[in-house]
Amino acid sequence: MTFRTLDDAGPLAGKTALVRVDFNVPMEDGRITDDTRLRVALPTINKLREAGAKVALLAHFDRPKGKVVPSMSLKPLVTPLSELLGSPVRFAEDCVGGPAIAAIRDLDAGGVVLLENVRFHAAEEANDAEFATSLSELADLYVNDAFSAAHRAHASTEGVARHLPAYAGESMRRELEALDAALGNPKKPVIGIVGGSKVSTKLDLLKNLVGKLDRLAIGGGMANTFLFAQGVDIGGSLAEKDMADTAREIMTEAAAKGCEILLPVDVVVATEVKPGAAARTVKTGETLSADDKILDAGPDSVARLNAAIDASKTLIWNGPLGVFEVPPFDAATVAVAKHVADRTKAGDLIAVAGGGDTVSAVNHAGVTDDLTFVSTAGGAFLEWMEGKPLPGVEALSA
Ligand code: 3PG
Ligand code: MG
Predict the structure, then answer these.
(1) How far apart are CA 5 and CA 398, in angstroms?
(2) Is the CB of 76 inside a 6 Å radius of any atom of ligand 1?
(3) What is the pTM of this model?
(4) 15 ligand 1 Cβ < 6 A
(5) Per residue in 154-185, pLDDT tens?
(6) Which of 38, 60, 124, 175 to mutate to test the pocket of ligand 1 (most atoms within 8 A of CB)?
(7) How far is Cα 192 from Cα 183, in angstroms, rounded to an integer?
(8) Which of 197, 291, 297, 372 is 20 to 30 A (C-alpha) from 361?
(9) Residue 302 CB partners (closer than 8 Å, separation 6+)
């Protein structure tokens, strides 16, 4: 898709930009424990400041359900954000009306104000037109830099874009370009890795992918469901046995569409999920006991998957291959992540990964910076992989 960016916005000096960011950061006792989402917003904020615009930052935090919940205020972000920007950041006690208008009016060119949690208003999630209009009255242009909130059709992500010239921010632009390179308009052959525990939460995603990919490797707990559906003994492994028919349907559809499905050919089995637990590797198809649990893919599966990656030009990855949080069941995920990193660094592969657990898994393998792009978006990344239009992105289409 084509979308408008800040390069299409014309001169910005003296204008006010209303910038939707995703500052839904992890916090403990009023302190940020991971400031990635603040850092991600810096290029857009700085670009606007350098162009002489006033910057009003609009964001949600947590799920206050339309009420003022003091513990969900965005105020604790003011200091960390001003430290990152190297200049003061003002705060407005409300994101619309008097407090917001006054705070923006008092800014110098290049000044920044953070507006209070937009979800303190029930009208936000209702995508209320009047509320969207009030937001739009604060500014001359709207910039959406919150890909990770773009699956929400809310006033601050969708409605407001109808009332102002609307542009993708720098981080939104990077994200959309990476996603397009992975699934929209990729270099073929394309391989996907989908892991995680449940087939049921990733049904739409699997169905969309089998129609688009040349190969799809299935890992994690959901591979157990697929193996079970093929009549393989999975012992006492986590699986959704009632999804066996669905798993077979997906296999049939993949075959019809020319997508090769890669399931583990060997697995790592243990009777308990704890660090350093006694584990053994077995070929899939061997008889397991009732307390055996499949917790990771085995070395033959890793070798086969790595060879399939070598035969591909693009990789899209969501979900770990095993219980990577509990070593030694991180072995397959780490080995494949390192291989992906090597191929990417060599210029042989475009590798895009995303979704909550995937980011932790790639971080755990220490290769985050070596992939082409790692998306920190959770729900938005999944919905995009499902092939669903994201309202916040659609609103920016040129
Ligand atoms: C996120 O943290 O995933 C986004 O900010 C969206 O938050 P939400 O799931 O509460 O809409
Ligand atoms: Mg969330």
Answers:
(1) 9
(2) no
(3) 0.92
(4) no
(5) 999 999 999 999 999 999 999 999 999 999 99
(6) 60
(7) 10
(8) 291
(9) 331, 332, 335, 336
